[in-house]
Write a structure and sequence with these properties.
This protein is globular. The chain has about 500 residues and is an alpha/beta fold. The chain is built from 15 helices and eleven strands. The two termini are about 15 Å apart. An eleven-stranded mixed sheet has the order 1-3-2-4-6-5-10-11-9-7-8, with helices on both faces. Helices cover about 35% and strands about 10% of the residues. The protein binds glutamine (GLN). Glutamine binds near residues 182 and 183.
């Protein structure tokens, strides 16, 4: 039965259809694997009982001929998505014990399509981080290890580190994520899995704990490009409850993966060559470019001159929006409340005890940037820089269909590294943040192992609403790279 966890979503759907196995069996196999790899701390809350109940219902539903896009498929759900009556923490102490009385639109869509929830995956607190180390519930461990230092535990990336690690360790067939500045793409790269952040507005944010509302976008992780295409279609769509969700039809993304990239033009942004970037990241990028050329695509160098301002703009805009969004956690409506008799003290102590250091840092930066007298100098200025970053991309897309870039300037690093230097940690997102500011779709595909035996990926960035070309090129890249390596710790 254990090989059930090696199937892709596509294969599992086929097996369920042919009655080779049931969703209950498929779900149980994943619950067993979750037990086996508990040490990775990929889940904050496991929900095996709910999963088996959903699987049983799905088997009945299938027998009656009513089959959703993800009928019977067991998934991990990032703990940022509100799930009815199931603890939703956002990785924070301040939401410990919070059981929403509503279901996010994304999880509603997934459940309507027959998906099964195995549990809520670990994440950086309020999705602020690049290493999963800011989670109140302990860090997730990347299932990959360095060849020469097999004892050293590595970060899975962040903030959706639990989802990426769970997919890499076959503790679910796919998992939801959210990406504000790279939180799907960077962990995909560190964990050797495939993940997509769609265009801003493609998936509803309703019921997703808010970090930076103008940037947050739900997306997904899986082990193949095709699986992501099936997954994204099941979760996306217009939602009147989210005013920023777009009223656009959701295409059959999987149909776009036709292997044909002849005549496509791939832009290579020269600003993504940064000083001190490891040679193997550059080599992997060059190999990706060569693969796509050999498959009939044309590559052109493009310039995105305002890339250098993206990081600074992001670290004004994201904390500013976060400081406003997080004002609602006051000990009255959610989670633990400090036992203080004076109301003002209750607020202060609840927040002081409830939030971790990184969240407090962002609230302070954001409050400062929005304060009177500084608003124009910081927030407005950052919004102007954001517009220039978007214009760079739109100009590049006049001469190319998609862009090919590294997803991150490094492979997974040891837990604890970069902890004393927030700026260094922030730089891990240098290649994902620009597309987030511009609201563009971005996908990461694992392509190679570095000399330490760790996965490296490549990122495809597309035009707004053109996930289809992103999937098409990502699918071709996946074929050419033929990345089949598995984390050593799990073999
Ligand atoms: N690492 C980035 C940050 O800390 C992005 C996180 C995210 O995309 N949620 O803000």
């Amino acid at each position: 039965m254990s090989t059930l966890t090696d199937l892709t979503i596509e294969q599992a759907l086929e097996g369920l259809k042919k009655k080779d196995f049931t969703s209950v069996e498929l779900t149980q196999a994943h619950i067993d694997t979750m037990d086996k790899h508990k040490n990775l701390n990929a889940y904050i809350t496991e929900t095996p009982d709910i999963a088996l109940e959903q699987a049983e219902k799905s088997d009945k539903k299938r027998a009656s001929g009513n089959v959703g896009l993800l009928e019977g498929i067991p998934l991990g759900i990032k703990d940022l998505f509100c799930t009815y009556d199931v603890q939703t923490t956002a990785g924070s102490h301040i939401l410990e014990g919070f059981k929403p009385k509503y279901e996010s639109t994304v999880t509603t869509n997934l459940f309507n399509n027959g998906a099964v929830m195995l549990g809520k995956t670990n994440m950086d607190e309020f999705a602020m981080g690049s290493s999963n180390t800011t989670s109140y519930y302990g860090n997730t461990i990347n299932p990959w290890r360095r060849k020469d230092e097999p004892e050293t535990e590595l970060v899975p990336g962040g903030s959706s580190g639990g989802s990426a690690a769970a997919v890499a360790a076959h503790m679910c067939m796919g998992a939801t994520g959210t990406d504000t500045g790279g939180s799907i793409r960077q962990p995909s790269s560190y964990c050797g899995v495939t993940g997509i952040k769609p265009t801003y507005g493609r998936c509803s944010r309703w019921g997703v704990v808010a970090f930076a509302s103008s940037l947050d976008q739900p997306g997904c992780f899986a082990r193949t490009v095709k699986d992501n295409a099936i997954f994204l279609r099941a979760m996306a769509g217009h939602d009147p409850k989210d005013s920023t969700s777009a009223d656009k039809p959701v295409p059959d993304f999987a149909a776009a993966i036709d292997g044909n990239i002849k005549g496509k033009t791939i832009g290579i942004p020269k600003e993504y060559h940064i000083d001190g970037m490891p040679e193997e990241i550059i080599k992997n990028w060059e190999q990706g470019k060569k693969w796509l050329e050999d498959a009939g695509a044309k590559t052109v160098e493009v310039s995105l001159p305002h890339t250098k301002y993206a990081m600074a703009a992001y670290y004004i805009i994201a904390p500013a929006e976060a400081s406003s969004n997080l004002a609602r956690y006051d000990g009255v409506r959610y989670g633990p409340r400090a036992n203080e008799s004076v109301l003002r003290d209750m607020y202060d102590v609840t927040r002081a005890e409830g939030f971790g250091d990184e969240v407090k840092r962002r609230i302070m930066i954001g409050t400062y940037a929005l304060s009177s007298g500084y608003y124009d100098a910081y927030y407005i200025k950052a919004q102007k820089a954001r517009r220039l970053v978007l214009q760079d991309f739109m100009r590049a897309f006049e001469i190319c269909d998609v862009l090919l870039t590294p997803p991150a300037p490094s492979a997974a690093f040891p837990i604890g590294q970069n902890e004393d230097d927030p700026i260094k940690m922030y730089l891990e997102d240098a290649f994902t943040i620009p597309a987030s500011l511009a609201g563009l779709p971005g996908m990461v595909v694992p392509t190679n192992l570095n000399s330490q035996g760790l996965p490296l990926g490549l990122q495809i960035i597309g035009r707004p609403w053109d996930e289809e070309n992103v999937f098409r090129v990502a699918g071709a890249l996946e074929n050419l790279a033929n990345f089949t390596a598995r984390p050593q710790t799990l073999l």
